Amino acid sequence: MAKKEKIVDLKSRPEKINEEELKGIQEVVNNINRAQIEIGSLEVKKHALVHHVSTIQEDLGQLQKELESKYGTVDINIQDGVIKYVEDVKANS
């Protein structure tokens, strides 16, 4: 048995969606746009912080070199500044 196809009257089709539907679509699209802008802003902040951390790590490396030239190879407790001198330990052959 063949299925009957629905005939659509092209003259009676609406030309626009209603105002409520339009407002709903606009609200969702605006929310997406705001979220994307916020993500971009966060990525810029993230990039700046990553760069800042890199700079601080370079500063720490320089400070470590200065302390090593002054005290030699040591462990320094960063809580109280106590120096623990590292003994030269040779590996068993």
Radius of gyration: 34 Å
Structural class: mainly alpha
- Number of E-type strands: 2
Estimate percent helicity.
55-70%
Spatial gap, N to C terminus: 91 Å
- Which series of helices and strands comes N to C? HEE
Question: Which outline best applies?
Answer: rod-shaped
Query: Describe the biggest sheet?
Result: 2 strands, antiparallel
What is the residue-averaged pLDDT?
90
Give the structure's gist in a few sentences.
The protein has one helix at about 20-70; strands at about 75, 85.
Folded structure, characterized:
By secondary structure, this protein is mainly alpha-helical. It has one domain (17-85). Helix content is 57%, strand content 6%. It has one helix and two strands, in the order αββ. A two-stranded antiparallel ribbon has the order 1-2. It is rod-shaped and about 95 Å long. The mean pLDDT is 90.
Architecture blueprint of SSEs:
Layout: H1 19-71, E1 74-76, E2 83-85
Antiparallel strand pairs: 1-2
List keywords for this structure.
single chain; about 90 residues; mainly alpha
